[in-house]
Amino acid sequence: MEHLNNKLIMKNNEEKNCFIENEIKSQRYFQNALSDFTFDAASGQAIRHLVNTGYTAEQILHQLDYPVPMTKIRQTITKYLLENGTLRKELPVVQKHLQHMYYDFMNESSIFSFLSKQIEQDEEVNSYISCPFGINTTDAESLLSKMTLFLTKREMEYLSGIIWEPQIMYHRLNRRMLEIGIQLAINSDLFSFYFTKSCEVIHANMIL
Asked: Contact 158/150 with Cβ under 8 angstroms?
């Protein structure tokens, strides 16, 4: 009888502990949700507006009238770019359906002219550049540090303001990223241009 009572007590204690753990998890979830809501109301909209204006994470940090951690700014920027389609984890087409094209160019102007025509043909919403910055943390940091040799300070700030996931991501070829992308492509073979409407991948090579 005593053994049975002990088992019942243990079972009740386990159920009680389980209930307490669930309550704690629920409270944490609510607190995190409330925190995210409060942040979005206070800072999220301002950050998104500044991103649309062309500000980098570093510039946003100094533009805000109240302190916001850089990590939070980068998280907000990355989430916003993913939501509006500027940044993608996957292309909207099956990779095996893409045709790889290799071109040699004499100078940056010829690359810019060629890609601009491609973007006009496919439209900006269907034009991307591959971004392998997050595939490996060590390599990504090394890769980004090498970019300082040919990118401007503001261009570097833009790339550093995005949280790159450990996979190849794709950035829409808007005016800013087109200019950055040309520099990336002619200085490294890790970057390619994707045009999902015409199903082409452009690999650019500079003739020295």
From this structure: no
Phi-psi region of 85 (alpha: psi -120 to 50; beta: other; left: phi over 0): left
How many angstroms separate the CA atoms of 143 and 191, rounded? 12
pTM of the model: 0.78
**Residues, the chain:** 208
Note the helical H segments in the chain.
2-39, 45-53, 57-63, 70-83, 108-122, 137-147, 153-160, 175-187
Q: Both tokens of residue 7? A: 């088992």
For 150-167, the pLDDT digits (tens) are 899 999 999 999 999 989
Structure token pair of residue 9: 């007590």
